[in-house]
Amino acid sequence: MKTEFMCPCGDDMVGADEDELVAAVKKHLADKHPDRDYTREEILLYADEA
Questions:
Q1: How far are the Cα atoms of 3, 21, 25 from residue 48, in angstroms, in the given order?
Q2: Residue 13: what are its φ and ψ, rounded to 5°?
Q3: Considering the entire predicted model, what is its pTM?
Q4: Contacting residues for 39 by C-beta, under 8 A, at least 6 apart
Q5: With contact defined as beta carbons under 8 Å apart, do 12 and 25 qualify?
Q6: pLDDT digits (tens, 9 = 90+) for 5-41
Q7: How far, in Å, CA of 49 to CA of 36, rounded?
């Protein structure tokens, strides 16, 4: 299960499961990169197993 995502800006997001991770990444994108939006599949493609 993928539960960690390192954004190219240097911020690291971690979730207890993939649903929580995707929500955290989407929030980060909305807050810091509002011009970018990725699907769940795209987020998990670049996520890592913690």
A1: 6, 10, 13
A2: -115, 140
A3: 0.92
A4: none
A5: no
A6: 999 999 999 999 999 999 999 999 999 999 999 999 9
A7: 23
